[in-house]
């Protein structure tokens, strides 16, 4: 079975590392000459709207999936003529646009911060009057890791903010005084079978995920599964989907979904019976899903900009290095460490050891 | 760090799957056009004594290691001029020749079946008179998985047996009435640090490993570590080494060593904190060694000739498929399953499920 992946970054790389032992092979479409997945499969170097490359990919593989959601809808539509594509064009259309996404949450009765569609500065001014400040202005599409957004704290921040984000369609979101950020990674098979990993506590630094800790018997697990299950069913979703929530007043408010394997699920490589990467591949290829149960207590720490010296990471007990083989660049996600410990106290001590390395 | 591997079969493939997340890349020298490691690195297609390819490999990588021990000594000597090679030429020289290997066991005080060097039929007749029957005649080099050997049960089996094995240097080994077969996989770093995985119970079918089960607190663990430690020190060994023993009268008799990652250590991918593949790479590259502790209860079953339907393997709980991507051929090792369960009773039930698939 040969899998085509749109995008050839670290998510594609980890998909291939999970799929190769299942007997799968991989081809990646990515315009970057140094796409880090290419060590693990064929690299088709081309733009995502390059029909010649898309046609070559479709002819060469059994199905196509994605490692990022900002794929042009037209790309998905074109590919779908020739080869099965999971998740569906509809799931991508919703997930890549914050307005569609938030509107779906509202339609499905999933609590989410107040929001408004912003097509102009006048729209923004009106929405700020209705929702109040502080609020966050985000581009409807193409935002990630805190990019394409601006926090509006006082009236003067609002002035010219629409132009500042490029005068593109935006979403204004009411600021939520959250006590924590959690995410639920879920997987749904072609037959509708659905499994959920344990809720993960996330810490973001400057808008970028820094630390994820898998929870045990989280009191909001059932509620989160209910909300995520509604979305999976609505989209007739196939594959892994990550859902980020704010913890507010002991409940959850939906932040956003990612229709793909997700950074907050990287701990599952060592920390779960079957990783998010293997489960995504099982789902899209129609295999039975694997167990999402935890193995020990797990956490994940991102390496941003550079990976610490490998001998230092390797010297930390319970620590598993995932080096993406990418060029180091300030702020870039270039690797992560998974920690898998016997108990939470040990895990916390290990987290401190990795953080000391990162901050050294 | 780029690693050159002599041989491009499943062991090379699993080395690369373990090393890629450490930021390593790989090149494999293998004459086979369909060498299954090539999905995970550069494939230099050439014979093991092809100086041009060896030189290209040496120039291209930081160090060289092996995935099989029958490498011509001259190949190792040639490579060693240009690039570090682990394990050493001396370790390979001993391990690839049953006479040198058994003589070393004897010199180190490690019990082993009676044995004799056989250079002619007359040598064989004399050795049979001294050691008795039953006995096993084995070629000194190039034997594996029961190939290159003949069991001699009665006098008539001895007649012409030397010629039958090709009139090449052989070893006669007294038959040992063993109650079980166990192996110890060990790893030794460049600095001499040594770690041992738990003893593994092995079941061979027709001379080929069928099933390995990792033990817990095996009463012979300490004795086995003592014996293996002597060999590692004697050879100033660097990397993973597997040592196969017969269990005899509550003690151990040495069967053979393999100076490489080993089939009876495949369970460590999911079943140990750090797999034999990662630990081999840590050892040869001078990184700190990883923990050899078990995670749950583990077993490994080989898939010989063909891999069962992937959807059936994936449907078994606790089961992890390792498909080597090789063409199916009667008797060929084409994959394995690792089982990792919470307790031994569950593990045994899962073993039965995989065996039912294999025998279906």
Automatic annotation (TrEMBL), chains A, B:
The keyword Protein biosynthesis does not apply. It catalyses: 5-amino-1-(5-phospho-beta-D-ribosyl)imidazole + hydrogencarbonate + ATP = 5-carboxyamino-1-(5-phospho-D-ribosyl)imidazole + ADP + phosphate + 2 H(+). GO terms for cellular component: cytosol. Keywords: ATP-binding, Ligase, Nucleotide-binding, Purine biosynthesis. ATP binds at residues 98, 138, 143-149, 173-176, 181, 204, 255-256. Pfam families: ATP-grasp (PF02222), PurK_C (PF17769), RS_preATP-grasp-like (PF22660). Its EC number is 6.3.4.18. Residues 102-285 form the ATP-grasp domain. GO terms for molecular function: 5-(carboxyamino)imidazole ribonucleotide synthase activity; ATP binding; metal ion binding; phosphoribosylaminoimidazole carboxylase activity. Homodimer. HAMAP family: PurK. This is N5-carboxyaminoimidazole ribonucleotide synthase. It comes from Aquipseudomonas campi.
């Amino acid at each position: 079975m040969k899998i085509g992946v749109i995008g050839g970054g670290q998510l594609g790389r980890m998909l291939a590392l999970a799929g190769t032992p299942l007997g799968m092979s991989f081809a990646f479409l990515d315009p970057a000459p140094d796409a880090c997945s290419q060590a693990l499969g064929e690299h088709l170097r081309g733009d995502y709207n390059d029909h010649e490359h898309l046609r070559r990919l479709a002819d060469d593989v059994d199905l196509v999936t994605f490692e990022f959601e900002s794929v042009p809808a037209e790309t998905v539509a074109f590919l779908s003529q020739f080869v099965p594509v999971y998740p569906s064009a509809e799931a991508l259309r919703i997930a890549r646009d914050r307005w569609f996404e938030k509107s779906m949450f509202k339609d499905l009765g999933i609590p989410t911060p107040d929001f408004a569609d912003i097509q102009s500065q006048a729209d923004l001014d009106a929405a700020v009057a209705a929702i109040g400040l502080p609020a966050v202005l985000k581009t409807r599409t193409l935002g990630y890791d805190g990019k394409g957004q601006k926090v509006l704290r006082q009236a003067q921040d609002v002035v010219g903010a629409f132009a500042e984000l490029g005068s593109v369609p935006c979403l204004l979101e009411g600021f939520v005084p959250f006590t924590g950020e959690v995410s639920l990674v879920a997987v749904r098979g072609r037959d509708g079978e659905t499994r959920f990993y344990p809720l993960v506590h996330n810490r973001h630094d400057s808008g970028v995920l820094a630390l994820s800790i898998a929870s045990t018997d989280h009191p909001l697990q059932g509620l989160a599964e209910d909300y995520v299950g509604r979305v999976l069913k609505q989209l007739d979703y196939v594959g892994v989907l990550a859902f980020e929530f704010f913890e507010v007043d002991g409940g959850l408010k939906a932040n956003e979904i990612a229709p793909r394997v997700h950074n907050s699920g990287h701990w599952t490589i060592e920390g779960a019976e079957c990783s998010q990467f293997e489960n995504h591949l099982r789902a899209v290829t129609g295999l039975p899903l694997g167990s999402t149960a935890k193995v020990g207590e797990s956490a994940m720490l991102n390496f941003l900009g550079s990976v610490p010296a490998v001998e230092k990471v390797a010297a930390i007990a319970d620590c598993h290095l995932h080096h993406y083989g990418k060029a180091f660049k300030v702020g870039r996600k270039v690797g992560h460490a998974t920690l898998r410990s016997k108990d939470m106290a040990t895990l916390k001590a290990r987290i401190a050891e990795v953080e000391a390395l990162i901050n050294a």
